[in-house]
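Readers of this paper often ask what the protein records in our data store actually look like. Below, we set out a record of this kind in full and without editing:
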Amino acid sequence: MRPSFNSIFMNLALDLAQRSHCVKAQVGAVLAKDTRIISIGYNGPPSGTHNCDEEWAETGCARDAKGSCSLALHAEENAILFAVKNGARLEGATLYTTLSPCLACARLIYSAGIKQVYFQKSYAAYKGLPFDEGVEFLNRFGVPTVKLESEFSGLED
């Protein structure tokens, strides 16, 4: 049995997460459209700055006022920025990410015209928040955002 594209893209997002230099969390993202990959990303500081695991291996980079990394771009941001920088059209694309989008990323996803989001783990659970604001935002404004259970190879394409 051949794997579905949903399974392939989520597995790629999981593999990409391993490229992250973040000491606290590794997140990967894939943007796809019509069974083709548009862009990929993983969380980390902007290219040409610091790699947290090299510069601050024990503690990670400094935290901002909300307790988040003060340097890193989220995986979704990196995937969207790379696509835009290279002239890719995101309207109608699907995003696969290993961690549900935060509210700021959800606003970018919506504004970019991405039509569907699949995620593996909850950002709210990771951050100790009462609910996933980004997921709620996207679902509220018509972008279906679905948590994939541990086994996602059976998803329909």
In short: The helical segments are 5-17, 52-55, 75-85, 103-112, 123-127, 133-140.
